[in-house]
Amino acid sequence: MKASVPATASHVLTSKRANRHPLLKYWDLYLMVLPALVFLLVFKYGPMYGVVIAFKDYNIMQGVFASKWVGLQYFRELFMFDEFPRVVINTLVISLMKLVVGFPAPILLALLLNELRLVKFKRWVQTFTYLPHFISWVVIGGIAVDLLSPSSGIVNKAIQAFGGEPIFFLTSEKLFRWILVYTDVWKEAGWGAIIYLAALLSINEELFQAATVDGAGRLRQIWHISLPSIRSTIIILLLLRIGHLLDAGFEQVLVMYNPTVYDVGDIIDTYVFRVGLGTMQFGLTTAAGLFKSVIGCVLLVIANTLARRMGEEGIY
């Protein structure tokens, strides 16, 4: 009969922790998450009580709960506006253009950065590409106006130097949407590439070594190893992007558009800002925001369901 080995102190602590309630078992991890939860509760879920303004004739003096109920009146008014279908179409078109052009951009940038072997140069490039994320759209709008000005902009100066005529970029209905798309890509591609670059760095290096031994070049390694390895990350970020399909970039459009491009550049947010807040119709603006949130939630649920049916994890 074998003698029992006395349990060490670490074994005793481990066994005690395993028998605890999950909240007590992982208290240190929950403590780390607590600041994020407080942020969500205070700044995201707390203000949600204001959604009832969409169903009330809101009066600042009476407050949210004392104001008179009007039911779906503001939703009917919103959908009866002659310009509302146009701004919805503009919002969808601009968002889809940004999705098609802007979503692959950080993936491509991350793949290119991952191929760089000079560490210092790689860090410099990564720094310069994600710095625009921290620049305000007000500043970027001013830069765009200066660069694209038909009289003094450097772009039109170059066009004129080659014998062309100056182009009114920011007043052209054909070009305005593309300006929104490419300025958004320039601002956000570097920041989005950080996530994909982190996913690429987690790939087992032995896979690339084995592929090299088998004679696979860099392009084949990217196609057969890098992209499949970050597929789950791509799917999750795509689902989140679809959930914000009706967010076409309020601040960007507000800074860069003008009355001559309202037909192609006026989105839901800017239209509500002009029509609703300009006339102090808070119920109308809240109804538009709630409309966007409901549509975004429906799109997210549909996209997540399709992703799970295709074998992906999804976001829930």
UniProtKB/TrEMBL annotation:
Spans traversing the lipid bilayer: 29-46, 87-113, 134-155, 222-242, 282-303
Membrane topology designation: Multi-pass membrane protein
The ABC transmembrane type-1 domain, residue ranges: 88-303
Highest taxon above the source species: Bacteria
Keywords: Cell membrane, Membrane, Transmembrane, Transmembrane helix, Transport
Localization terms from the record: Cell membrane
Keyword Membrane: yes
Family of the protein in this entry: Belongs to the binding-protein-dependent transport system permease family.
Protein known as: Multiple-sugar transport system permease YteP
Protein's gene: yteP_26
